[in-house]
Design brief:
249 residues, alpha+beta, four-stranded mixed β-sheet, three-stranded antiparallel β-sheet, 7 helices, 25% helix, elongated
């Protein structure tokens, strides 16, 4: 069943009806991430058109209650600077991250204060800190408020045999509080065929292969039309002819 539309305008009931009371095992996705991209403008949540789409992901997690979720996004979330809005309670002395929707409305509405989530006191104050990785902090805070146990890591597709250097952030959560076992890389940048990678948590040695290049993936046995390729010539042609602005490829 394909549900087409802007996720901000699709109510949870549409998904619930399509499920026919079946239990959801996993929700996986990656909301558009241009605001956080290293190659983009790095506006973080201040770019409201796409920056808050992750909240729709949180909404579905909270409403559909899957056993697991997998949230994938750009590595930039781990280091992009973001204003993190905190609530400081003068009564119980607790300091915690304000809810995302409160943060988004804060600059426009000029909200004076909010009740403390811990003790209920009205005697609270705002505090803003511009933090590296602040966006990740805010996202994790929203996921954890749904009651899910969450862990995150950055994985590189090249470390698992894909012919592309592509680092992505993964946040994995589950309702049962189980620890996550992240995959062990099968490939490595600096190793040769005979290099061994030692896993200090394992009694056995883990072999890692060299990173796979585009050449290896497409033409290691020769080109389908031109047969044997001169690797050096092909590389020079790509660098000097395909890209007109001298960017290395």
């Amino acid at each position: 069943v394909i549900i087409e539309g802007d996720i901000r305008n699709v109510p949870t009931s549409i998904f619930s009806n399509a499920l026919h009371d079946e239990e959801v095992f996993c929700i996986a996705g990656g909301p558009p991430c241009q605001p956080f991209s290293k190659a983009g403008k790095q506006k973080s949540f201040d770019c409201t058109k796409n920056g808050d789409l992750f909240f729709e992901f949180v909404r579905l997690i909270n409403d559909l209650r899957p056993k697991w979720f997998v949230f994938e996004n750009v590595k930039g979330l781990t280091f992009t600077k973001t204003d993190v809005l905190y609530v400081i309670c003068k009564n119980c002395k607790e300091k915690y991250i304000a809810p995302f929707r409160i943060r988004q409305d804060f600059k426009d509405s000029g909200i004076n204060s909010m009740s403390c989530e811990i003790c209920g006191s009205e005697n609270t104050a705002w505090h803003i800190e511009n933090e590296p990785g602040g966006s990740l902090k805010i996202i994790l805070n929203e996921f954890k408020k749904t009651g899910y146990f969450c862990e995150f890591t950055v994985l590189n597709a090249a470390d698992f045999g894909a012919p592309q250097i592509r680092e992505r952030l993964f946040i994995v959560g589950n309702i049962a509080g189980k620890k996550i076992s992240w995959p062990i890389p099968t490939h490595s940048r600096k190793c040769t065929e005979n290099t061994k990678q030692i896993d200090i948590f394992s009694e056995t040695e883990q072999s890692t292969k060299p990173w796979v290049s585009i050449y290896d993936a497409l033409w290691s046995k020769g080109h389908f039309y031109y047969a044997e390729l001169d690797k050096t010539t092909a590389q020079l042609w790509v660098k000097n002819v395909v890209r007109p602005h001298d960017e290395p490829v």
